[in-house]
Give the backbone structure.
Amino acid sequence: MTNYYWNRFQIKMKSCTWQDTFDALIIFWMTYFSVIDLYLTIYFVKEIIRLIRLQRELAFEEERERLLELERAAQPKPKKRRRKKKNK
């Protein structure tokens, strides 16, 4: 069975021209670099999503701190006790 496939492969290789080899190389390079481009695109999209989440977290933290400051400012301040003047 293996001999059959090997013979078929040898027949194809004997009839192969330089143009076929060149076409095969171009197809290989196109698919290889397409896979690399796809990988890099996915990587950069993930990085952008991570940065957007980080920015959202920082904005949420700042908003929470601002609300806490407003809440502290809205609370009534304790009155200062006045010292009694001593009679001389």
The chain has two helices and no strands. The radius of gyration is 37 Å. The chain has a mean pLDDT of 85.
